Amino acid sequence: MRFSQPDKSRLRWIRLVLFILALIPLARLVWLAATESLSANPIEFIERSTGTWALVMLLIVLSLTPLRLLTGVAWPIQLRRMAGLFMFFYACLHFTSYIWLDHWFDWREISKHIIKHPYVLVGFLAFMLSIPLALTSSNAMMRKLGRRWKHLHAMVYPIAILAVLHFWWLVKKDIREPLAYAVVLLLLLGIRLIHWQKNLQRAKHTGNAGS
Amino acid sequence: MLIVKKPDILSSEITPREVFDNRRRFIKAAGFGAAAGLVASAGFLPSLASATSQRQKIASFNKTAYGKDEQLTGYEDITTYNNFYEFGTSKSDPAVHSKLFKPTPWTLSIEGEVKKPKKISIEDIFKLAPLEERIYRMRCVEGWSMVIPWVGLPLAKLIQYAEPTGNARFVEFISLADPKSMPGVRVPILDWPYREGLRMDEAMHPLTIMAVGLYGEVLPNQNGAPMRLVVPWKYGFKGAKTIVALRFTEKMPVTAWMKAGPSEYGFYANVNPEVEHPRWSQSTERRIGGGLFSPRIKTRMFNGYADEVGQLYAGMDLRKNF
């Protein structure tokens, strides 16, 4: 079948292709910078672009489980770590462009922004929370942490909610774009919720039957 | 005796600006084309949208001393980075979506507390008073700024022509909202038409102008053709574009942004580094055109025009009247 588990070498190819695809947004920024085409406000452009791609990667991470639940195709979950690390990669670029290009390491100013302005605060929190996830993404760390690993990585849900809020609150008036991300996120979380509820009911039923 | 020196270059050899610009655009576009396979979508190439059609020189205007020491923001930046929601909410939208917009013929309607309501054509506004070039800083409420060489006439001249009555305490500016030619108006982002307003003393202030051009040329569509308000000590959104009516009123008008977010946008909207937008800081700004590695600059009270306009707000609590 077409969607069945690819063999090892096939999977390696898929990984390589996706890896290159995931670097296109960065390549595009470099290209636009080299040709001075980053709009009249290049710093804002870079902040927007890297932020958007971090969010996109995050939603890809969160879409693999619903894909399995809806279609039974499970193997793409093997690509989740890569998507997650790319989310972290673009979030790092996003954060760096904010503290470097936008604010020139003016820590007093930056910390004032984080404390006073909720959209900066939630973005900052989302980034901080994603650091331990990136650090514990290796197989070795997975083994070391055992069951706690899963609990730790459930943090991706609050991170996603904070990230969408971050976008929502910074938009001046036209919320259509952040709204689109919010809807996708709600769908992805909704599918999980429905599934968990079904499981819970099933467990109850079998529990009753046993007594 | 021959007084006129023969020029070194025949006038026929000089490339007209239009052609020259077109050529440059073509070269630029071709350069991008080569890489198109790599970048795929046209949406990925923001600067291609910059091509502005039909640029037209303004025949005569007087230079003034305003802003003569400022470094001007480039024409390209001023005309491709616009907040003009009637043509879309992205900064690059107006340059693209206003291309087919027709700013002539145009009449401005003068209404409300005036001796007699009347209409005036854009051609007559050009002749109402000698046009002046005013180089002003423009500070957007979003935290960026430009320096723009406007061409226009003092709004006071237009108000004199309008002959407001003694009851007129405010003037409201109403913009065009035509869903046929302005795609953004089909989306209820703001309560169309766009409305702005000034107190009469602000409107009569010598710094306040009705702009009809920039860089010595007729105002491009994306900058508010055929005429727009420029009030340099206030945030940019006060500068209503494509104005179709001036309405003199006794009561303070409710502006489009006041309706959209009363806690975020007030009637006065004076540039003030100490009064923050509820969601972001106003203490610094990014000057457009500085490139990737230029730091932000400090925002100044009344955008640096405090000496001229400070007395208009003497005794007012600017935190309350934001």
> What's the N-to-C terminus distance of chain A?
42 Å
| Low-confidence regions of chain A | none
Major beta sheet of chain A, specifics?
none
User: What is the 3D shape of chain B?
Assistant: globular
Poorly predicted regions of chain B are: 22-52
What tags apply to this protein structure?
heterodimer, A: 211 residues, mainly alpha, 9 helices, 0% strand, B: 322 residues, alpha+beta, 7-stranded mixed beta sheet, 5-stranded mixed beta sheet
Brief rundown of the structure:
Chain A is built from nine helices and no strands. Chain A has 211 residues and is mostly helical.
Describe the structure in your own words:
The complex is a heterodimer of chains A (211) and B (322). By secondary structure, chain A is mainly alpha-helical. Chain A has one domain (8-210). Helix content of chain A is 82%, strand content 0%. Chain A has helices at residues 8-34, 42-71, 80-102, 107-116, 118-135, 139-145, 147-153, 156-170, 176-210. In chain A, helix 1 (8-34) runs antiparallel to helix 2 (42-71) and helix 2 (42-71) runs parallel beside helix 9. The radius of gyration of chain A is 20 Å and the shape is globular. The mean pLDDT of chain A is 94. Chain B contains nine helices and twelve strands. The longest helix of chain B has 18 residues, at 17-34. Helix content of chain B is 19%, strand content 20%. In chain B, the strands form two sheets. In chain B, strands 3, 4, 7, 8, 9, 11 and 12 form a seven-stranded mixed β-sheet that branches. A five-stranded mixed β-sheet of chain B has the order 2-1-10-5-6. With 322 residues, chain B is of the alpha+beta class. Chain B is globular. Chain B has helices spanning 17-34, 36-39, 75-78, 93-97, 122-128, 155-162, 200-204, 256-260, 306-309; strands spanning 107-112, 118-121, 132-139, 144-154, 170-175, 195-199, 209-214, 217-218, 228-230, 243-249, 284-287, 297-298. Classes of the chains: A mainly alpha (211), B alpha+beta (322). Chains A and B meet through helix 1, helix 2 and helix 4 of A and loops of B.
